[in-house]
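Data availability (excerpt). The following record was deposited with the supplementary files.
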Amino acid sequence: MREHICILMIWIVFVNTKITTAQTLYCNIKFVNKTIACEPSNKIGFSKACFYLYRNAVYEIKLRNNNLLTIKIIDIEKERLLVLEQNTVKKTSSFFNEKPIYININEIASIKTNDNREIKLNGYHTVITNDSVSYNLKSSHVKLFKNDTVETEVLSYFYRDVYNYVYVENNKMYWFEGQHLFDRPKNKIARSTSIKKNIIWFTPNKVDVINGLALGLFPTNDKNALLINGVNIEINPIMLFILLRAPFTNIYPDSLDYVTNQVINNCETKIKGVNVSVLGSVGSIEINGINIGGINSTIDVMKGLSVSGLNNFNYYLKGVSIAVLRNRATIARGAQIGLINKATNLRGIQIGLWNINKKRKLPFINWQFKP
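Predicted structure:
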């Protein structure tokens, strides 16, 4: 009798072990290059030889019908993905649709890495694996600002062949660059009547228009819409901290969609005239005229002439950009002159030691006048 009981117990343990093992298997999808040998690796990200798709990560994909989608992968099943699709209805406050949908793997033509590059899946074999490990990039929840009472989810976003961190707020997606050490700014509400100052005034301030000379740390006000007609002279001590990090670009430097939808016509400050900064200017600024930056200028929209000691970065440039070291623009209409020049979408010329645009990479002089 005891022998029968022991055998029964061993059999139950064996069956339970098999059931448990079966329950812990996860379906994963790996893309293997048809011409490059794939070597085993634990590296998270993209490899030309092979790479996995990850649950809870955000991707930009192109379907075979040429539709572009921004998706968040919820789960991976055999030959299909369960995803949340970006909400295209602007009236809603949610970035992703609440109801998930299925997308078959064979419907996906490519995975975008930025506006200029995409991973075309016709060059890869699709391998379905059942593993004890789920390829899942866990999100974190953080307080974005010091005085936030609610934590915000931070997700992994596939961009430039690696996974960066993003968060969603007010139906928009933003890069996550760390928790802020200060309180969340109060919502800026437009005044019912415009406040103007003539001849000379100081920045930052609580006025809407300055006609004449603006002096101060950096050109901004309390209502998110400052117009300077004349000359702005600034010191901008923030540039000291930025220079320590030595950035040569801002977020989404190659995204034409971001420039079109988020930058153009949405600058917080507009300067019509001349902008002079001892160290350099940075921020949501549109300049129509001349910009002179001591070291580095990171100006969203530049229409005119921009001259900086080291580096110029513009989302939109219409005119001439001159820098000793580097000029960088997402959309450029005109000329870039510097040691290194790069434009994602160029209609004009580049003069420098090394010049990069969508058409070609050339030393000394480069150009692009047609798509």
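Summary of structural features: The radius of gyration is 26 Å.
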